[in-house]
Amino acid sequence: MTVFDYDQVRPSDIPLIVASAEIGVSILTLPQNITKITQSADGWMVILLSGIVMICIGWFTGQLIVRYPERHLSDIATQLLGVWATRILFFIYGLVMLNYFAVIIRLTGTLAKMYFFDLTPIEVLVLIFALAIIYCVSGLRIAIMRINQMFIPLILAALAIILLFSFEHIRWANFGPIFATDWRELTRGILGTLPAFNGGIVILYYGFLTKPSPLIPRQIMYGTVIVTAVYTAIFICCVGVLGLYTSINSLFPTIEMAKEVEAAGGFFERLQSILFAVWMLAIFTSAVFALDISTMMMQSVFQKMRKMPWILLLSPCGYFLAMIPRNDYEILNWSKWAGIAMFVSMMPLPFILLLAHRLKRRRATHG
Amino acid sequence: MDGQSNQENFYRGLFDTVHQNMDNIRKLLGSPDDLVTRKITIGVNGPVCGIVFLEELTDQKIMNEHVIESLQRTNLAFSPNQHANEILMQLRDAVLPIASLQNVFTLDEVVLKLLEGQTALFLDGTKQVVMLETHGWKERGIKESASEKVVRGPRDGFIENIAVNMALIRRKLMDPNLKTKTMYVGKRSRKKVAICYIAGIAREEFIAELDRRIRSIVVDSVPEAGTVEQWIEDSFLSPFPQIQSTERPDKVVSALLNGRAAILIDGTPFVLLAPVTLSHFMISAEDNYDRWMISSFLRLLRYVAAFISIFLPALYIALIEYHHGLIPSKLAFSIAGTREGVPLPAVIEAYMMEFTMEILREAGIRLPAPIGQTIGIVGGLVIGEAAVQAGIVSPIMIIVVALTAISSFTVPSYSFAASLRLLRFSVMAAAAIFGLYGIMICFILLCVHITNLHVFGIPYSAPFAPGTRADWKSLILRFPLTMLNRRARLTEPQDTIRFRRRSNS
């Protein structure tokens, strides 16, 4: 029997959870994605603008949670959109998230192989990581929230250390020319960057765990503000340290940047290992969210099966999916498209639901 | 008596009959076993008076010879019409050979003084009470605790007598709201177990649940606190202790004031504290006595040391076996130099030395104190030195092992330090197979386990996550005492305010 009530996420915990959910895979590839499109150091504008868009989306998400406190997303959607529409939508979401889970574990394996293990087969590295994720997902949902809260300070602290040490390596000449990007490239850049904020939507699926409070929208927005600041800082440091050309052409520019950086008078010369360790924490939480939401969606579509069988069914599927791509190029491409698929399919949901809520209420007052 | 819940079953004033007063005090204190209420006839045909005292806090010799005997053998004559107040004055002035006594008129004062070990003298017909200074408790055998030594702070530690232990707590916490629930555990050998808490701070539901759990224990006997601990803990699969044990009364008092409960068990100097989370195990009793900067620094140091004691040998294995590139190059050269000629791989080397260390530690405990130290010197210096000389292990390995062992001693709780030692070996195994990647996976698994573990419904990871921000003032850093105006939110105490800060602006 439990005595103390710790079953809910308090509003004050939300910013860290949202930030942790958003910081994920993209942190390593973000500078490359953006500079490729903008071809200039104006990427920071792209990040800021995408951040603002995401903050707006976060606000709408918060509004939905406030209007339907302590309700599962599937309940809300069924009430507003009908049973079948919800089932089809959620089935798609389940697959999209499973795909995303596969991307993440594969990327982790690839990176671990690239930077740590040349000889260990990637299948094993991915398997170990996937097992850790399964262990986490099979626990309590509220514990997933807590693990995010525990990791994000470590992630932010380590990033702060790396950024601090990289500061002296920044060559300001790398930033010119500024404001050279026209609005078309900016828009394309924004569309390419938005998937990096995908995690922001995650809180919608855990609305039933949050304590009802009018502060929720604001807290979600704060979370995205943190992430926007982190992304902008990383971008600026990356371009400043590596220069535009290297940023475009390296696979993981953030890690390349960390390689350049030295600390304690050159004694610690390999800060990228810290970055990789931290990145593993960040990516772990993303992967946990992906698998858990996939499970949650499938459970709401096929309600007879319980959580554990779904996890045991979905995770091997994700694992085999992760083994399909043959080279780094395919993986990066796949990860890009998986991010876009997630963004395109999920971001409209809060708007659709809020619209349906509006229409329903209007019909109720008029009819 | 602030903070008393409104379900109190006693009257807040004094009565003018002995019988009612005794009953009232008994109710107020929750009828503890050590409360003695006695009626005594004064002299041969005198009126009847009542004396009330807490047995374990009073000196029986004074009680018998100076109080009871004097009252019974007095030759004073009392007239039937004499007012009770006059009789009381006569007793005070002419009968009782007690140096320090005092007239009091309120129940509050009576109870507070009772808890200090004084004796209350009641008489029918008056609301006046005479308090006699009769304190005296068993002090023999109270020594400094062996497992939780401090440089600054009280030196007393619990002993094997539950009554004395209770008195030690009462001595430090003279609050009438300090309640005890006594019960007996064990089918064959019935041991006295007491739950101790402060009414008005600790959550009633929690005390009820604790009571239920202890009553559910079915064993032949309770030889030590560990038996109770293992019966009432939430998960036996976790490597972490889920109930804290301590030998220090001041630690118990500080826990009680934060809305936690203590479980005293007769026959052991270890008192259990619940509920507990990870953060409690890193707090030393000293933290509240030192100034805030030094205690913050020491606490930070302990966290770092705990990390070292789990991860350092694993890190050594990972760096030496897999990721030479990650070692700063100058350091890599010197390590490579010292490892030259060492035939064993780092994994075997590390396991061997860690096992040796554990063996030495275990052997040191079994031996009498002076020989124990010898073993430490023989083990640490002679074996280490010889192993290096023989070329079996590298000097760096000796440094790692020594640092790990010393780090694990900085953790204030023995049981928690022991679980860290246990975890160290599994992290080493992970590092041996997967290097840094394995260490990170281990760290993640550990965090997942901690967030999933609940103790009486409180997440083990609190107040780190979920963050009860008020508690962060005394988590890794310890803020100045004047800023700690709220009790720990963790246990959701009924009375959250420790003191009110006066706003001068």
List the helices and strands and how they pair.
The complex is a heterodimer of chains A (367) and B (505).
Chain A: H1 14-22, H2 26-38, H3 43-67, H4 73-81, H5 83-115, H6 122-137, H7 141-166, H8 183-193, H9 202-205, H10 216-249, H11 253-260, H12 272-301, H13 307-322, H14 328-346, H15 348-366
Chain B: H1 18-28, E1 35-41, E2 48-54, H2 60-73, H3 84-95, E3 101-104, H4 107-115, E4 119-123, E5 129-132, H5 162-172, E6 178-185, E7 191-198, H6 204-215, H7 225-232, E8 244-246, H8 249-257, E9 261-265, E10 271-274, H9 292-321, H10 329-339, H11 346-366, H12 369-389, H13 395-409, H14 414-452, E11 454-455, E12 458-459
Antiparallel strand pairs in B: 1-2, 2-4, 3-5, 4-5, 6-7, 7-9, 8-10, 9-10, 11-12
Shape of chain A: globular
**Count of individual beta strands of chain B:** 12
CATH fold-level assignment of chain A: Amino acid/polyamine transporter I
Structural class of chain B: alpha+beta
Shape type of chain B: elongated
Outline the low-pLDDT stretches of chain A: none
Strand order, sheet with most strands of chain B = 1-2-4-5-3
